[in-house]
Fold this sequence. Notes:
The structure holds two protein chains of two kinds.
Chain A: E1 5-10, E2 16-17, E3 22-30, E4 37-48, E5 56-64, E6 78-83, E7 91-92, E8 97-108, E9 113-122
Chain B: E1 8-12, E2 15-18, H1 20-58, E3 61-75, E4 85-96, E5 99-105, H2 116-124, E6 131-136, E7 144-145, H3 152-157, H4 159-179, H5 183-195, H6 215-218, E8 227-228, H7 235-265, H8 271-300, E9 304-308, E10 318-326, E11 329-348, E12 351-372, E13 377-385, E14 394-395, E15 399-411, E16 417-423
Antiparallel strand pairs in B: 1-2, 3-4, 3-6, 4-5, 6-7, 8-9, 9-10, 10-13, 11-12, 11-15, 14-15, 15-16
Helix pairs in contact in B: 1-4, 7-8
Amino acid sequence: MNAPGLRLALDEKPRAYRAGDVLQGRFSLEGVAPVDVRAVELSVLWHTDGKGDEDMSVHYFERVEPQNGQPIDLQHARRFSTALPASPLSYDGLIVKICWLVRVRVFLSRGKELSHEIPFQLGTVPHPHEVAT
Amino acid sequence: MSRFLRLYEKKRGERRTGSKAVGNIGEALFFGVFFVVGCIALAGMVSWFVWPEWRANRQFASSTCVLLDKRVDERAGADDTEAPTYLPEFHIQYEADGQKWDAKTYDVNRTYSTDREAVEAILDRYEVGDRYVCWYDPIHPQTVVLVRGYSGWLYLLMLIPISFIAIGGGGLVYTLLQWNASAERRSLLAQRAARIDLFDAGTGTGAFPTVPADSHVTDSPGTTLAYRLPGGSSTGLKMVAVAMACLMWNGLVTIFIVMAISAFRAGEPDWVLTVSLVPFVAGGVGLVVYFVRLALIAAGVGPTWIEISHHPLSPGHSCEALLSQAGRLKLNSLELWLACDEKATYRQGTDTRTESRRVYQERCFVRNDIEIDRGLSFESRCRVKVPAVAMHSFQANHNEVNWKLIVKGSVDGWPDYERVFRIVVNPAGNGDAHA
Lengths: 133, 435
């Protein structure tokens, strides 16, 4: 069997959205037997990345687990779609940065885990400059 | 092994993120110890006290006994410092299952007391040679009691192990539930928990998530314009805090100063103590100066109010503001600024630090040489415009973007002062900074 290949793609290019836009995409997994997949999680979230400790909030979350012994088939691309919120907008501040991304995690048997993420831009707030006080 | 149990994970700037697995194990151990200690203590209390007491009340059979003798049983303390304890002991003869039994007893728990007088008072209620009702254990007839009932203190005491079990068990369940959950799933659980927290109305979760709620402004109507902004920081509280710090610091320093002076007077000067006291004395003087400055501003500068025509604001939009300054003052200048600060809170070791950077400020109003008479206030209107290219207000646990109106005053012969009024800036309609 080939090395596992987790693919994640957004429909929109470039990856810039406005508040209320619908974010759509798909993900798939190759090189892993469906019986080895314990669960799949897809999240659309923002997190902070700056001087402060990290804050994170999940806007959209979808977890798929095998149902009635039926393995999860990720050979065929699985689609997702969500309307983006009005806030917080992406922000590249001096010590506060807000980053939006789509992340997919695949939990495999024996505790292994695969993940892939795609950042995207929500809104168009420009980078600020420091002001002397 | 190190593959599965890393002590440290990724490094963020100057800080290292601890291993999640080690953290989980530590957390589980912490709560596990609480839970086990609680269980052991509760099991001990139940088996030694609660169960025997319950059986004596519900299952023991009654009989009649003859009191043969009575005495106070004294148990010496473990050492000289520990007081002796006492127990009323009655030697009785009773009949159970057609057989005569002999026993020394009182209650089922045999709880010793430090109050000898109370124990003697119990003895006084019984006369040697008289007949009394007693209750014996049908399974072990040699176990007999003269009194029954429930000990209230025992059930109160049980709250201690029960709280250990609740904290430890709850924490353990939480840790185990989170053990294999991804960061996103944990965050989602926390968000759901926050949503059911009825008392947490700090951050908007409706149309504009993470934008602070503006009810603190809209709940306060103005007299001229729509809303009166609440002051961002309470001078009174700040003064009390500084006064406390001032008293504690200088109180401690005074003790050492007295020690140093006593050494000088005794002809044995302690130079090490004297020299090392210098920075502490300087710190104390600094605190006193700061307190006096605050007191002067509080006493000399009257209240400052700002009213605005609408709220919340949004990028590219403006509102009318009314600035009002009371107090008998001669101001060199009075300014109103619109400012935006980023604020980040982070842990460094055991300290929690906060850092702030100003990313926008614009003067909306300035007036020089103002004289305010007693009983009157200076009032002036101006326009406050949020720039079209601006980040909205943002509030998370460790990161914030705060918009505020700042009044800066320079008073003749007094320290300069600054008063801050928080406002909320919503995102523009579609998320574009250019509205």
